[in-house]
Amino acid sequence: xxxxxxxxxxxxxxxxxxxxxxxxxxxxxxxxxxxxxxxxxxxxxxxxxxxxxxxxxxxxxxxxxxxxxxxxxxxxxxxxxxxxxxxxxxxxxxxxxxxxxxxxxxxxxxxxxxxxxxxxxxxxxxxxxxxxxxxxxxxxxxxxxxxxxxxxxxxxxxxxxxxxxxxxxxxxxxxxxxxxxxxxxxxxxxxxxxxxxxxxxxxxxxxxxxxxxxxxxxxxxxxxxxxxxxxxxxxxxxxxxxxxxxxxxxxxxxxxxxxxxxxxxxxxxxxxxxxxxxxxxxxxxxxxxxxxxxxxxxxxxxxxxxxxxxxxxxxxxxxxxxxxxxxxxxxxxxxxxxxxxxxxxxxxxxxxxxxxxxxxxxxxxxxxxxxxxxxxxxxxxxxxxxxxxxxxxxxxxxxxxxxxxxxxxxxxxxxxxxxxxxxxxxxxxxxxxxxxxxxxxxxxxxxxxxxxxxxxxxxxxxxxxxxxxxxxxxxxxxxxxxxxxxxxxxxxxxxxxxxxxxxxxxxxxxxxxxxxxxxxxxxxxxxxxxxxxxxxxxxxxxxxxxxxxxxxxxxxxxxxxxxxxxxxxxxx
Length: 572
Prior knowledge:
Number of helices: 6
Number of domains: 1
CATH class: Mainly Beta
CATH architecture: Beta Barrel
Largest sheet: 18 strands, antiparallel, barrel
């Protein structure tokens, strides 16, 4: 009932024109180009919260197009190319070739493939998704295939409806897993005798105007500036349903909020189905998340974002966490402390992004699970469970079409974990934060060159380290109620390195049609594990060298290998 009241109220107040269809984060080429325009000083951008809406991307492309004298030849061609993909947002049919039919209101084409329709009330597009990725190294060959379709529509001035379905097949070893330390998108695999098959369905409905939107969607969310894995919300976990709210009533202020239904992968022993009066099928425990992010712009191109979130696992939705502007840890204390019971799992975060120097993007994002000033004292061995990312990007300077990125991430012990598994910072068991998890660090450097419209080459170097693996356990109780506890945070962060990935790569991509490209990758990686030499410490998950390697890395990538990949992708 509370949700219905909030939705009805916000539907009532959203009365000005505007449409909000999110552009999925997988279309990294358009995201990269919009970021380039912002770093080059042509547009202003809050890059701490993604996905962007398609209408927002189109607006930014038009802003940049108006500055023809500041654009180079390749950028001008890129803008025209991407604006064609956003034609329906301007109530126009996109340009295409090899038409199956074409009239004033609709068309169907094979290049770029899709069906498009527009009239005074309704605009819609249906586009296929198709792709193939062929991977080979000394460990063998893996072939990934996917097929599906996207549907996007807007009704009148306020309503948007969108959906997508993709079925993916992995002929070979599974490369994505909640415990694997790679940035492969997370999936819930179907049962299979080999490899991994999985499907991915996203979609939603939104009502919006020119200063805000509210929606009920199932999508991926990325929070925190980054060029190689966000440490607040990475978007790697399988998409989850959520209520979203976005407000920007002034140029200097923006608010983003969502309330999500996560997948706990934890059994609720009190909730089950009974089959034929004999067999019990236990159901997963409920798991929810509420999060907000407030972005302030004190001066142009300086974005300061602060927010907080909470993971909670009640039988039903807690109404207090439907309040978009709230400090959830304080609410949690009000709701749980009087019972002498354990809190829910709350977090805080901050992101600072500066593009005040032309051609330069400086940023940092901080994720805080717990913080105590006493832990800052040199005599205190405990470390605050926090994750810090800092980086810089230089674009089109001193050489046009060339950009450079450097990024460092450090995450302390237990940052994304919880002693109560259902309250961990995960969904479908995938960490919601940085893909390396806790007690890890990464250095990432890249050079990217774009000689022509749609063509880019990237040379990259990555050094990723993971320290001792710990389960979050507590000890010390008083009459069954948690009293003085000893955390693993008394152990040094990183400690002994038990896993390492050093990779040098060359990637090439050519976008032939909108969101349709061919690609190749060559990566020389050395992924190895090490057995700790010191005695087992409290809470440590001690593994042998082979166990560590198998736990963190698919067999396909283990060791010193050159991996070659090539393929094509459209609509994904």
